[in-house]
Amino acid sequence: MKPPVFEYHRPASLTEAVDMLGGLENARLLAGGQSLMPMLAMRFAFPDHLIDLNRIPALAGIAEDGGTLRVGAMTRQRDLLDHPVVRARLPMLAEALEQVGHRQTRNRGTVGGSLCHLDPAAELVAVATALDAELEIAGPRGARTLPMAAFPLGFMTPALEPDELLTGLRFALPALPQGACFTEFARRHGDYAIVSAAAILWPRDGRIGRASITLGGVGPVPVRLEAAEAALAGQRADAESFAAAAACCGALDPMDDAQVPAWYRRRLAATLVRRALTTAWERADVR
Fold first, then answer.
1. Rounded to two decimals, what is the model's pTM?
2. Hey, which CATH number is domain 179-283, 3.10.129.10, 3.30.750.80, 3.30.530.20, 3.30.390.50?
């Protein structure tokens, strides 16, 4: 199929891009294009103007700044996956990125593009929620920041005004010992996850001091299992406590579609939570 007719724009600066986005009617931003281009070809999107962000160097790059890692929105997924600080300090992020499509799509796909597309099953969306990323947003009224937890308003709907764009995000680098794991189940490698689970455990005196559990693919936005997180605090890290945390998935009301029924997602979520918690604790290296 062929895409609808649109006018192509290629700004050279962030200021120019913001001006175009605010001044053009029915405009869409082009980042890596791994989601948008198929949507155009299948006539799921009908922009009158396409604004290409690929000629704005300031929107890409990875930099360690004190206790945080800043990632530009136009940073390619492959560059983030291969970055030594990500590998050493945020291994769960690298683990999730390895599940994003294939090498070819990661070479073009951008971090910001994936987050703004906000597919419920997208790995980056789930792991950014699990890691409590902070998003940087620019628009004609200036810059603002937003926690990742507040970014998804609903199904594939980010908390961006029509004249705003995502410029980058920040990940806090761990200051305390922790173990983390990202795991997912998909029909085949490279497909979107049917369900994904991200778990982080902070040990304290041989027990679980704090826990973070995030599920992707079960609802229109990532789901934090707050009840399970609270139940794990102060508990021994054993099969019994992990099973009890996984049982909290029974209260989920997952998405239901022609391929995957809700009951299957619910049971799969429990299995992946238990698996992710077990692996996260093994990686915590408690002595």
1. 0.93
2. 3.30.390.50
